Amino acid sequence: MLFNIIVKAKGYRCYIITLLRLILLGINANNLEKTLHILSCIEVISYVVPFHDLIKEKIAGHNRQV
Fold first, then answer.
1. What is the pLDDT of residues 9-65, one digit of tens each?
2. Alpha-carbon gap, residue 53 to 50, rounded angstroms
3. Which of 6, 8, 16, 19 has the most crowded Cβ, counting Cβ within 10 A?
Protein backbone atom coordinates (compact mmCIF):
# COMPACT_ATOMS: atom_id res chain seq x y z
CA MET A 1 0.00 0.00 0.00
CA LEU A 2 0.91 3.63 -0.21
CA PHE A 3 1.56 3.84 3.54
CA ASN A 4 4.49 1.44 3.28
CA ILE A 5 6.18 3.76 0.79
CA ILE A 6 5.44 6.87 2.84
CA VAL A 7 6.92 5.38 6.00
CA LYS A 8 10.08 4.15 4.28
CA ALA A 9 10.77 7.41 2.41
CA LYS A 10 12.46 9.88 4.78
CA GLY A 11 10.96 12.95 3.16
CA TYR A 12 7.38 11.78 3.59
CA ARG A 13 7.43 10.33 7.13
CA CYS A 14 6.32 13.61 8.67
CA TYR A 15 3.01 13.38 6.79
CA ILE A 16 1.82 10.18 8.50
CA ILE A 17 0.32 12.11 11.45
CA THR A 18 -1.52 14.44 9.07
CA LEU A 19 -2.85 11.48 7.11
CA LEU A 20 -4.04 9.80 10.30
CA ARG A 21 -5.91 12.96 11.28
CA LEU A 22 -7.60 13.11 7.90
CA ILE A 23 -8.43 9.41 7.99
CA LEU A 24 -10.04 9.68 11.42
CA LEU A 25 -12.34 12.40 10.15
CA GLY A 26 -13.74 9.92 7.63
CA ILE A 27 -15.14 7.51 10.21
CA ASN A 28 -18.89 7.66 9.79
CA ALA A 29 -21.51 5.60 11.60
CA ASN A 30 -23.87 5.94 8.63
CA ASN A 31 -21.43 4.54 6.07
CA LEU A 32 -20.16 1.19 7.32
CA GLU A 33 -18.20 0.31 4.17
CA LYS A 34 -16.22 3.56 4.31
CA THR A 35 -15.54 3.04 8.01
CA LEU A 36 -14.23 -0.48 7.36
CA HIS A 37 -11.83 0.83 4.70
CA ILE A 38 -10.60 3.50 7.10
CA LEU A 39 -10.05 0.97 9.87
CA SER A 40 -8.09 -1.26 7.49
CA CYS A 41 -5.88 1.75 6.59
CA ILE A 42 -5.26 2.39 10.28
CA GLU A 43 -4.39 -1.29 10.70
CA VAL A 44 -1.82 -1.12 7.89
CA ILE A 45 -0.29 2.02 9.36
CA SER A 46 -0.05 0.40 12.78
CA TYR A 47 1.90 -2.51 11.25
CA VAL A 48 4.49 -0.34 9.49
CA VAL A 49 4.90 2.55 11.93
CA PRO A 50 6.79 1.73 15.13
CA PHE A 51 5.00 2.78 18.29
CA HIS A 52 6.90 3.80 21.39
CA ASP A 53 5.57 4.18 24.92
CA LEU A 54 6.55 7.68 26.03
CA ILE A 55 4.93 7.37 29.46
CA LYS A 56 7.59 4.93 30.66
CA GLU A 57 10.35 7.32 29.56
CA LYS A 58 8.67 10.20 31.35
CA ILE A 59 8.40 8.18 34.58
CA ALA A 60 12.03 7.00 34.28
CA GLY A 61 13.18 10.58 33.65
CA HIS A 62 11.21 11.79 36.65
CA ASN A 63 12.80 9.15 38.90
CA ARG A 64 16.29 10.26 37.83
CA GLN A 65 15.60 13.87 38.73
CA VAL A 66 14.35 13.12 42.25
1. 888 888 888 888 998 898 988 999 999 999 998 888 888 887 777 677 666 666 665
2. 10
3. 6
- φ, ψ dihedrals at 53, nearest 5°: -80, 105
Tell me the three state secondary structure of residue 29.
coil
pTM (whole model) above 0.85: no
Instruction: Compute the distance between CA of residue 52 and CA of residue 48 in angstroms, rounded to an integer.
Output: 13
Q: Which amino acid is at 53?
A: D
Give the amino acid at 28.
Answer: N
Q: At residue 29, what are phi and psi to the nearest 5 degrees? A: -70, -20
User: What is the domain partition of the chain in residue ranges?
Assistant: 2-65
Give how far the C-alpha of residue 31 lies from the chain's centroid of Cα atoms, to the nearest Å.
22
